[in-house]
Amino acid sequence: MFKVIQRAVGPASLSLLTFKVYASPKKDSPHKASVKVNELSLYSVPEGQSKYVEEPRTPLEESISHLRHYCEPYTSWCQETYSQTKPKMQSLVQWGLGSYDYLQNAPPGFFPRLGVIGFAGIVGLLLARGSKIKKLVYPPGFMGLAASLYYPQQAIVFVQVSGEKLYDWGLRGYIVIEDLWKENFQKPGNVKNSPGNK
């Protein structure tokens, strides 16, 4: 259909070179209709139905599958725990970095005060020998007393907040004990102590 005008002949190394080839249609051939893309054999769909056949699993694939199914609850638990603890750990790291920056640029007189407060805790630990309750009460008490001498405003706020919390906890404990007392020690047949029979 087309005739090549220029031909190239040379060694094999020249085959890597690019060159132009000019072609012209034959003048005596009648003009044929163009072929559509879907009519080309390259794009034709082969007849017949294809069927998917799954290859049988090897013993190695079976053992890996069993291992994955066995470990799946543990890996999901680890992912859940990680997603829950990640924000807490990030806030802890931020608090540590903030504390480090504060200690690097501490206000004047901070470290001597910190030393006195720590020394008060050690004195409380030494005075609390022999009793576990004293070991729990004396060191924090002495450290709190020393800290309140240096930071009175913060100590007042701390005492107010902790006093409210202690009062709330005490009230809750009183209510729980009262409910337990009523359930266990006051029976419906016991009419001697009831207020209506005086």
From TrEMBL:
<dbReference type="GO" id="GO:0061617">
    <property type="term" value="C:MICOS complex"/>
</dbReference>
<protein>
    <recommendedName>
        <fullName>MICOS complex subunit</fullName>
    </recommendedName>
</protein>
<feature type="transmembrane region" description="Helical">
    <location>
        <begin position="110"/>
        <end position="128"/>
    </location>
</feature>
<keyword id="KW-0812">Transmembrane</keyword>
<dbReference type="InterPro" id="IPR033182">
    <property type="entry name" value="MIC26/MIC27_animal"/>
</dbReference>
<dbReference type="InterPro" id="IPR019166">
    <property type="entry name" value="MIC26/MIC27"/>
</dbReference>
<keyword id="KW-0496">Mitochondrion</keyword>
<keyword id="KW-0472">Membrane</keyword>
<keyword id="KW-1133">Transmembrane helix</keyword>
<keyword id="KW-0999">Mitochondrion inner membrane</keyword>
<comment type="subunit">
    <text>Component of the mitochondrial contact site and cristae organizing system (MICOS) complex.</text>
</comment>
<dbReference type="GO" id="GO:0042407">
    <property type="term" value="P:cristae formation"/>
</dbReference>
<dbReference type="Pfam" id="PF09769">
    <property type="entry name" value="ApoO"/>
</dbReference>
<comment type="function">
    <text>Component of the MICOS complex, a large protein complex of the mitochondrial inner membrane that plays crucial roles in the maintenance of crista junctions, inner membrane architecture, and formation of contact sites to the outer membrane.</text>
</comment>
<comment type="similarity">
    <text>Belongs to the apolipoprotein O/MICOS complex subunit Mic27 family.</text>
</comment>
